[in-house]
Model the fold of this input.
Amino acid sequence: MGSRAIVIVCQDDKVARDRFGIENDGSGIVFTRTGRRFFNDKPLEESLIEKVENALDKSGFRHKFETQWVCLDCELMPWSAKAQELIKRQYAAVGSSATAALTETISALEQVAKRNDLEREFTVPKNSSSQPVDIEKVLGWYKNRFEMVQDYKNAYRHYCCPVKSIHDLKLAPFHVLATEKSVHFDKDHEWHMTTIHDFCVNDSNILLGTHLSLSEYRRLLCGRHAQRENAVILTDDPEFKNVEKV
Done:
């Protein structure tokens, strides 16, 4: 899982200045999908831009498209490269506070449950809106909630991959948005995948390119369609006679 990233790569600082009016800020930039700067770590961003620049040069991309710059729509992995602070402030904070609160609650209920001088069930007057309480059931409920919190913490921990250098990143371009004098909205999916694959192979440690031919793409679609057809056939029972195929 990654984060959406818009990557603009110029041939050099002069092109960035002449074409985009950007001075003293390197030869490229990485934006989020909402237009914010992706990296707070400038050296890390520069290292990634340099990797893409070198791959483009080796593939002859600029000569082929007669351009000194390119704008790419990409997926940048891991997700924590951008969302590390979000994980700490939102997800981890919830997990930590819930664990602390439930641990104390369970401990108190366990102490109550061990007491022999208490009735197992507390009765309340019939005219009261309160409900009888079974300590064991309440304890079990809180223990179940505690387990759910641990599952929640384990779920987001899968995305907590440390990013300490450029070698911890993977960039997967999937659309050539624009080059000099061209906006490539009129090209099909295969063209984009092939074009991207041609320069990504020059740095497969960082860049991920997927070369999927049209025939392979059609086979993939046919396979998914067949799976859906089979799913309906497998549920061909009078009880599901109104199920529509999707």
Q: What stands out?
A: The mean pLDDT is 81.
